Amino acid sequence: MEYKYCGHSGVQLPLLSLGLWHNFGDVDDFDVATQMILRAFDAGICHFDLANNYGPSPGSAETNFGRILKENLASHRDEMFISSKAGHDMWDGVYGTGSSRKNLIASCDQSLKRCGLEYFDVFYSHRYDGVTPVEETMQALIDLVRQGKALYVGISKYPPKEQQLAYDILKEAKVPCLLSQYRCSMFDMKAKRENFQLAADNGSGIICFSPLAQGLLTGKYDNGIPEGSRAARSTGFLQQSQVTAERVEAARKLGAIAKRRGQSMAQMALAWVLSDERVTSLIIGTSSVAQLNNNLETLNNLKFSDEEMAEIDAIISDPVLWF
Q1: pLDDT tens, 104-161?
Q2: By the 8 A CB rule, do 297 and 309 touch?
Q3: With CB atoms 3.0 to 4.6 Å apart as the test, which of 86, 212, 241, 281 could cross-link to 107 if both were Cys?
Q4: DSSP run (H or E) holding 193
Q5: Contact predicate 123/157, CB 8 Å
Q6: Which CATH architecture has domain 3-214+269-301?
């Protein structure tokens, strides 16, 4: 595993981090979840990315992670970097969502109990909710650090204006933003254009999620929508309407480049996100040890020639592909 320093800090993160957004809830196979976490740790993935609402059911990914940690990795806590977040819908009532101090403080306390931890290495504001003053949200994060419940803080998916304000508030309080988390893939480059440089200029590390565009960049949909795939479900983050002919054709062309590189389409898509020198780490989501191992093989070929980059850019520059 390769590691990279996170922004203007002494913290190193693995190039690949394991996310527990999917496949670690109480509807999933606990034994498989355990195997994936242990394999990831053995491979040098020391960063595990959680959020209070990950599941389903909400909170169950943290509960399962806490159990796996206690039963298998308790003596390795200081070798691990564990993050969680709050801000999306979690519990009933008006205080169970959003970016208020009320929600963040209660969420962090609940998440620590579910995970069986004394502190998180980094705790994020999961989103800017459009209502809560950024000053209020950042003060809550600052206080979590001063209370010893988090070592560092981060922001996720903040628009540029609020992103800069968050950096300024945190810097003034001497609790700088360690990590800025954004969605990024060959089909979703908005954060590369609008947020990455702002983070880099302010000394924040950048960690990316959804590098495979919910499976569109794996070749899975090259010949239609497979039964049981994300797009085949009535609910979820990838709808059938998003599996367009243009995206499928672009994925086929990208797959041809990946084949020439000796990689799977998914491996090349991960390597492409990591090719941006501003990116500290990339969150992968896996459903099996085999898939995790496939993702790990990405690290064997991270370099792109100028010709390969030009060919990729020509394919993905069409706005009709973008999310």
Answers
A1: 999 999 999 999 999 999 999 999 999 999 999 999 999 999 999 999 999 999 999 9
A2: no
A3: 86
A4: helix 190-194
A5: no
A6: Alpha-Beta Barrel (3.20)
Angle at 149 between CA 148 and CA 155, to 5 degrees: 115
For the chain, give every domain's residue range. Answer: 3-214+269-301
How is residue 69 annotated by DSSP? I
* pLDDT, tens digit, 9 for 90 and up, residues 232-252: 454 455 656 788 989 999 999
pTM of the predicted structure, to 2 decimals = 0.94
CA angle 288, 4, 179 (to 5 degrees): 80
Strand partners, 306: none
Rounded to whole angstroms, the maximal C-alpha distance in the chain is 54
Token output for 60? 């169950």
Token code pair at residue 274? 């990591």
Closest CA to 218 of 236, 234, 238, 235: 238
Contact 129, 117 (CB under 8 A): no
